[in-house]
Structures are given as C-alpha cells and as structure tokens.
C-alpha cells in the first residue's frame, strides 16, 4: 500500500512559505517604524478573514427569519473565534410570512461563535412594525432565548410618549418589552415625534 504524500508535501511547502514570509516581515520591519511593522504583520495574519458588503441569513426550516448585513465584517480565528462588524450592522427580523417585524442598527457589533449571542454598541436603534423606537448605547441579542436586552440607559419612543430608563428586556422583534428601572416619562403628541 502506498501513501499519497502530496497533501503532506503541500502542507510542508505552505508552512515554509508562511515561515519565510514571517521572516521577511521581521527583517523588513527592522528599517520601518513599529506601526508599519504591525500593519505588515496584520496583513500576513492568516487568522483574520475580512469581507466587504457581507450578508448573513439565519433560517428556520428553510425560511429566512433574520438577515444581518454590514459594509465590512472581520472574523478573528482565535481560541474563541468571533465576528466583528466594525463599520456598522443592520439586522432585519422577519415573521413567518417574511414581513419585517423589526430592524436593529448599530455602529459596531461583535458575535462570539457558538455563543448564540451578539453585542451591538454605539448608537443602537431598534424599530418595530408599530413604529416604536428603542435607543441605547449597548444591546445584547440572545439568539437562543430569542430576546434582546440592555443594562445601559434606554429611551423608548412610542406614538404618545417617550420613556427613559436603565436596562430593558424585550422579545427579539421588540413587540413586547419591559424597562427595568424607569427614570422618566414624557407625554407627546404624534406631530412632535416627527
């Protein structure tokens, strides 16, 4: 019986190329600034995968229920791999009829693989199909429990009032929510919200 050693030979060649590249990076960085060296090393890092105009669909029995998209996404293949949307994210939550039930946007989001959760940060906005709007600095989406929650300051605007508070929990389509600690309410007319 002969063993095909081509995969092993190819793997050895790839390792030699990576070793040579890292040696070149080390040698070439001696004449450059520390920042330039870091940039060269980050470009050669095979543990980082980047994508542009990324769209991720989550389906249930072949029906898309959640769609996440962003201008850039970076996957860090570390001990605990994670995905980062550093230039913003938009998530659409669909019902079974494929109508949008709610939308979540944020300037930054991180999802640790196999954790079934995502953390959205910086200018987080959730809008449900009733037109109610949640604003917060940080929001966690628990995919397994199908909830979103925040332990930060929250502002919820409805058709007739604005509610301020600290911490909230809601179902993922933001149709049913509870503010943990209400700090204020303001009654408004619909025309004042526009």
Keywords:
single chain; 194 residues; alpha+beta; lipopolysaccharide transport protein A fold; 2 domains; six-stranded antiparallel barrel; 3 helices; disordered N terminus
Give a structural overview.
- This protein has 194 residues and is α+β, with helices and mostly antiparallel strands.
- The chain has two domains: 1-46; 47-193, lipopolysaccharide transport protein A fold.
- Helix content is 20%, strand content 54%.
- It contains three helices and eleven strands.
- The chain has helices at 6-28, 34-44, 190-193, and strands at residues 48-60, 63-76, 82-85, 89-94, 100-106, 108-112, 117-128, 133-142, 147-157, 161-171, 177-187.
- It has a six-stranded antiparallel beta barrel with strand order 2-3-6-7-5-4.
- The chain is globular and about 55 Å long.
